[in-house]
What we know:
By secondary structure, this protein is of the alpha/beta class. About 40% of the residues lie in helices and about 15% in strands. It starts with 11 loop residues before the first strand and ends in a 5-residue tail after the last helix.
Amino acid sequence: MLLNRFSKDFIEAGCDEAGRGCLAGPVVAAAVILPDDFENEMLDDSKKLSEKKRYLLRTIIEKEAIAWAVAEVDCVEIDKINILNASFLAMHRAIDKLKIKPELLLIDGNRFNPYDNIAHQTIIKGDAKYLSIAAASVLAKTYRDDLITEMAKEFPQYQWDKNKSYATKAHREAIAKYGRCKYHRKSFVLKNQLSLDL
Length: 198
């Protein structure tokens, strides 16, 4: 059972990102502030949920959250500042868009760049421990999947509609055959091309 709160004294926003390990497209982050009495037995780390459940939960989260926001950092920015900093920047942008200012940020993972003098707590595997982080993981994942599905229509040869731009064998083979496109992260693809096991 996921926990509703880390602390009873502060307005908490759970933050998570999706797409950090992908070869193309943006990294997308979400920030979510849930009501104190929010409950949902289905909600969990988005990686543990089926696609159908993720989209069902997205509707529930958007309806019941006190505040939520989604933001992205594109492949050009990722190549400039590296994927770790891009993940933090995407979270910062999502927090920027919240209509209510949080007093404590719950961050999935073990590192974070401080944001605007707001206290933060990093939590390893936080998306499987706290409802607000799990909610952020669901929003980040579904919004990123929507973006990648649209990009897949422009570049169908990479099969992003199936692999969501992760480094699957089919995706790596397509890069070897067709080269990279404008959505590929150059810093990732070059490293991965050195170890294509074709």
